[in-house]
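User: Quick one: structure for sequence A, then sequence B.

Assistant: Sequence A:
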Amino acid sequence: MLDIGKIAPDFTLSDKDGTERSLSEFRGKKVVLYFYSKDNTSGCTRQANAFAALYDEFKALGAEVIGISRDSAASHLRFAEKHSLPFVLLADPERQAIEAYGVWQEKKLYGKVSMGVVRTTFILDENGVILKIMPKVKPDTNAADVLAYLKNL
């Protein structure tokens, strides 16, 4: 896992439109980087919709929201269109950012152990420094918790 106060690892991934996007292009803005398991699952949909509902408030604070999962760019496009998601979704099927941020971990569900993305949110400052790490977040409260944190900076 990464540490608060360190520069967040840069990466380049495709967005929902197939355009390559790098974390470094968001320098000068605060970044809310949230990792989630899969498009169109109940928890991930609730989390994405919560970020979408508060998106104007994030923008007003100079923050960009970026969601990352292993889904393809085409899956992200369908997910974003279906739920009118206004923020950046990045496809990481090769787990480049997922592993660099340490969110590919062992998970247990109903006694079954498997590897997967642990729902985690990173808040970065304008220089790409990690301000806060929120591990194992709850999909229904994550966006509001992040917004409250940013408002108190």
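Sequence B:
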Amino acid sequence: MGCRAGARHPIKKDNMDKTELRKEIRDIKRQFTAQELHELSFAVIQRLLSHPRLHEAHTILLYYSLPDEVDTHTIVDSLLLSGKIILLPRVTGKSTMELRRYTGPRDLAKGAYNIMEPTGKVFTDYESISIAVIPGMAFDPSGNRMGRGKGYYDRLLTSLGHTYKIGVCFPFQMIESVPCDEYDVRMDEVIH
């Protein structure tokens, strides 16, 4: 990592609501170059790839990352090539997502919010999903997650009660305490 890692400032956590916290995280992200975020992503993805649950899983829910998220583009394809069933979310409405099976890069098309989304077959067998790898704006040691504010993942995750949920984030997105309410779904583990 370059000198910018030391330039970032710690998050002021006390009495910060979700809107303020999201702004603070976005400000910190802007302190890193694309290359620095890629390097930070590589370390997080290596930890994820070495996770025993990932090795045992047959069906995995992932996400196709935006430029300011932990980069999942390579892991999506490498896990697919290893024989795993890979699912990616697709935005279907103002606050809803569906899961689709990913079979390769040709399955992707630009969707809502300029996110590359799957065009493959709709997947509804939620009970078979072993692991869900979930992005977020911030996480805390208790597994609380704060998303981008639209609630898409929280709505989806309520349908995945049995699935082991792993939040992934850059180290600076791991904070002392995430403000949460009864609608927020807690992660089983966070890798940063």
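The longest strand covers residues 85-91. The radius of gyration is 16 Å.

User: Thanks, that's what I needed.
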